[in-house]
Amino acid sequence: MDDQRWGFEEAEDWEYEKLSGRPPPDPVEEPTETLVGEDPDRVVAVVVSPQAAVARVRLTPEWRSRVDPRGLHSNVLVAANTATMRALAFNVERMDSTAAAVPAAPNPPPAGLDQSPLTLRDVQRLLDAVSAELDQFTERMSAVMDHPVHVQSAGEHVHGSAQRGQVLSLDIDAGWAGQARHTEIENELLEVLRAMRDTSAPQQLAAGPSGNAISELMDLAADPQRLMRRLGLPD
Predict the structure, then answer these.
(1) pLDDT single digits (tens) 191-216
(2) Structure pTM?
(3) Which of 22, 69, 52, 12 is nearest to 188 (CA)?
(4) 217 contacts 130 by C-beta, under 8 angstroms
């Protein structure tokens, strides 16, 4: 019987596939450092990594005694966005702690460092390349971040929209939720929340702009004295 399963254990893979007609979401090893967002009724918990990647969704087996199935979507939305905000706060706090730390002694410059002269034409060519890479990054980010993404679970019982990593809306088939096993609901919620996060705030964009020209410019900016020498200016 469904309500005889206590805790947050997941359904067996074959059970999920039999009930939904699709394989369950790929298992992901839960990170050692996690943050949890919960709803006020404490029936839903969304577990995320410090980078806000959704690792797990937990739904208490007796949730129907506390929440009407027609309102479950609101609980999940609150829990998901709370988890995202906690991840953001965690990273802000970590950045503050890093900034307050005593700076380490600078490492000696590596052998074989490029010391060749730089002409104004070389510098202009580098800046033009950096500008092009930044334009490409901005274009990719705008295409993803400025428009909501819409996701539906394979079982078609859960769908929602998100933008910039925040869940905007979430809909759950109330008739299905009223009789489905809590582990089956967890799987479809996890599938949708994970996909919305991955597509509305992809990790490759979260890392910021990158490219050969940007890396070269950052390398030059990291050592102003070497840059001055390469430009033929006094240190």
Answers:
(1) 999 999 988 876 655 566 778 888 88
(2) 0.63
(3) 22
(4) yes
